[in-house]
């Protein structure tokens, strides 16, 4: 462990490096470190490059690169319907997630702060139960439920909310801890606002970055989830992609890259939000005072 | 993206991006918020001695607004600087605040619990019921009689073999991912914080850690599959991968693919710990005469050991539970435990053994559950010095 920490690249530890900044050490970037970074960069970029090249028809001989697979994607059988299904599931998941979790978390912080550990533990449970097992359990547990729920996108929405609990808890918890919740709520209530009004017009606007990042992560999860949908024999975009892959690798890879870019875009937004939160919060609170 | 890895396990844990970033501040923020809340109500207690928040909030409001505005300011700055010390700033009303929480009557508390009822009911139905169904069905035969035959079948071949393969894959990809991720983290933490390298690596790992599942499989098929780009490069260089025993769906191939989300996840988890090692600690050790080696052996190493072990466990659970990537790479032919469960679910099982999938699921819950609990405990230990 120690050897690993101190050595692998021959780099200085962060500790000594920072004070030494600007002196000779910085001017001679370690060769070992550069090579290591380049190797990692190659490992992470070559597959992406290869995938894009593949979707542009780079694997076919005698033919130049072409956009035909991308433009032809819309005309593939089932592409539009399944993409729409997945988008609807994503919207439904985020909506249900927020309706369930925002009031719960606000209540938890306000009235039951001593229960936070317990609720956190419950929210982390989905991590301990693999999705395959959840899918298996759904078949057993909801046998007697109407087919309209268990045989449709509804069951996916309901279960994706569960899968989203861990990061939703952390995001909302961090957001609510950063604001003077009790003061804000007491002020709103004393001015005559009802509970729902307080929640909607005072609490929600104050934690909107936390809500946005939890929502985006939830949407990304719902867009890309394959395991449960596949095992319950439901049709979503990832499931369609997998089926397409058994006939035409190029179409499937293109569809996969589409999911990928869509969710990357969403996740980039999250990291943008996260950076904005640390940078902007203090001035905003001061202004409210 | 988030299919296998993120959805199954790490999405939760994998979340460390925002969560881990927030965690150093979390305790400080928490106490600041507490302080703000109780300072505000302490203000009202000053004015009305029979302070019962609901009743007096209105009357005391104008009087306490000044003090609560004050505390708002402190809370904000405390949260941002992360130093708990400033929370003690206005020390006047603070003495009044300790006995407050205890004074709340019992009955109110019980009614407060009702606020959690929808959440509790939802989790019980949509997580509790499936888990319960798996656990009970693991001990029943098809007619519903109690039996241990499913569990015994699950620990014999062919399922025993799939546990061996699954654990081997998880251990290999976790250890390699942890060591390589740590190496990358150390290399990057030497770079300037606001520099390009540092920012690119943190953003990319935040994105890539969630990138498991289906797309990952297709990306690697396009790279190292039979018609992949790198395969063709190597072919034209006269090196045939398949002849040298490499295919994407054997152990080496799967480890290579899994590392693509394991290394970024490791970065996400270990970065806060690495950044939390304060320069002063090394300076203090050095000024007391310790060599670099001694510092890492006695101080840095022991401090980093719990987060490193925790991350290792997390990566293990992550790989162990992943389904979609391996499934799509091999169309279900690799004998991993999750894939075995999937194939049992689709009816691919000996007659009379239909519930063996539930027994396998039970064992997965046990393995992953233990690992995640151990991870949480290690993480809590780290949180004690990481602020």
UniProtKB/TrEMBL annotation, chain A:
Top-rank lineage group of the source organism: Bacteria
Q: Where is the ABC transmembrane type-1 domain?
A: 83-270
**Region entry Disordered: which residue ranges?**
1-26
Q: Reply yes or no: does the keyword Transferase apply.
A: no
Tell me if Plastid is a UniProt keyword of this record: no
The protein in question is named: ABC transporter permease subunit
Q: How does it sit in the membrane?
A: Multi-pass membrane protein
Spans traversing the lipid bilayer: 35-52, 89-110, 122-142, 148-169, 210-234, 254-274
- Matching Pfam families: BPD_transp_1
Its annotated compartments are: Cell inner membrane; Cell membrane
Tell me which family the UniProt entry assigns to this protein: Belongs to the binding-protein-dependent transport system permease family.
Fetch the PANTHER family from UniProt: INNER MEMBRANE ABC TRANSPORTER PERMEASE PROTEIN YDCV
Species of origin: Catenulispora pinistramenti
List the SUPFAM superfamilies hit by this protein, alphabetically. MetI-like
Alphabetically list the UniProt keywords: Cell inner membrane, Cell membrane, Membrane, Transmembrane, Transmembrane helix, Transport
